[in-house]
Specification:
Strand 13 (about 180-185) and strand 14 form a beta hairpin. This protein folds into five domains: about 45-120, Immunoglobulins (Immunoglobulin-like); about 135-205, Sandwich (Immunoglobulin-like), CATH 2.60.40; about 215-290, Immunoglobulin-like (Sandwich), CATH 2.60.40; about 300-375, Immunoglobulin-like (Sandwich); about 385-455, Immunoglobulin-like (Sandwich). It starts with 7 loop residues before the first helix and ends in a 19-residue tail after the last strand. The longest helix is centred in the N-terminal third of the chain and has 19 residues, at about 15-35. The strands form ten sheets. Strands 1-7-6-3 form a four-stranded mixed beta sheet, with no helix packed on it. Strands 8-14-13-10 form a four-stranded mixed beta sheet, with no helix packed on it. The protein has helices at about 10, 15-35, and strands at about 50-55, 60, 70-75, 80-85, 90, 95-105, 110-120, 135, 140-145, 155-160, 165-170, 170-175, 180-185, 195-205, 215-220, 225, 240-245, 250, 255-260, 260-270, 280-290, 300-305, 310-315, 325-330, 335-340, 340-345, 350-355, 370-375, 385-390, 395, 410, 420, 425, 430-440, 450-455. It is mainly β. The radius of gyration is 63 Å and the shape is elongated.
Length: about 475
Amino acid sequence: MHIDMNTPAMTSRTPAKKTLVLALAIAIISVALAPIAQATTTILGAFPKISVSYGVGTYTMVPPTSNSPGPWSYTSSDLKVATVNGGVLNILSTGYTTITATQAASGVYTERARTTSLTVTPGIPTIGVFTPQSVSIIAKTFKLTPPTSTSTGGGIFTSSKPAIASVSGNVVTLLDGGVVEITATQSNTLLFTSATTKMSLTIVAIAPVLGTFGNLTLMKDSVGSVTLIAPTSTSPGPWTFTSSNLAVATITGTTLKPVGLGTSTITALQAHSGNYASATTSMTVTIQAALPTLGAFENVTAPFSSTSANTLVIKVPTSNSTGAWTLVSSDPTVASIVGTTATLRKPGATLITATQAGLGNYGASTPVAMTLTVVGTPTIGAWANIEKVIKDSDFTLVPPTTNSPEAWVYTSGNTNVADVVAGVVKIKGAGTTTITATQPASATWAQGVATLTIRVLGDIPTIGAFAPMQATEGDA
């Protein structure tokens, strides 16, 4: 295209018109000379699956990433599940629907679309407060009011302790005093899951004041049965009894029957009556084996020797039980015991206690005791003879060595020669005498005896001079 700016037509116009014509010409030339633009493919990112619970109301979608600036629009394949307003989903029901996100063409970018799934699951209903309640047992029944809920599902009530409060429909029957937990369970619907909530129901009743229910101990086969006596109570309610160990004792009504050895807990239950709650108390019944009948456990005296083994088999009492015996020495330094054999350690006395273990229908025996006396024989050392003269002073005897602790007692066989008083010898005349030293026997020592001879010489006479003499044969 060519425009001649010097043509008469152009030159005859005003300057303003010339400028407009020039601009128009330049624009036409630019368009004519510009290259033709090529369309560009829109590239979309992922459109993740969507899952929500009913009850959220709305959900704002995040479109896929894109290299295009084009605007987005959305559609739902099932308008009963969810509708779309702009990029916001309106959740209407549970179910499944396909969401299509479409990005419009923009400039050189083409229109593109992505789909994803929307899953709406049942929601959790919002449950109102299930207020704890307190009611007197006198009312006998109590009507439950269910808590508010965003769900229309039906509900049931249950009691944690049907023996105290039972439930039928929404009516609670008050059976006893105490605290129970009432559970309200709402069933699931198309839109909501099931749900539960709980509340505490206190049934007010007077607690009875109970007397003593004492423990009981019986010997096996000593009685065939025992009549149980219920403890005193401020409530008039009836009593029932149960045994925790039927191998030991059974109960029928108020009759307890011993069955076997051992212990059982006997529970006494007083039922609710009037304004009074039920009450329980317990005691222990012990069924023991019969005591064995024992013979005498007689005292024993045994000699102690420094040269023998010093063992002694203890004879246990006779018994109608075959249970094993256990023997214990009160002083093992005198006699120690293993089984029924005593080892004698030294002279002395010790108490031997015997107990027979329970076996079969016989229980352990009552401990019985006897005294074991170990008697020692003194070992006496040598005692040398003594020689004195009649004028010697009194002297104290030195006794022989001995292992007995008993005191010595002395006697003289001839008090005209020498006498002994408290261990002191008094010389009386010439001659000989036998001194006997005796250690008396005691509970744990035999008698010890030693002797020696005291020889007392007479006084040496004073003799005058014995002058020499001369005699002639024939002298008279």
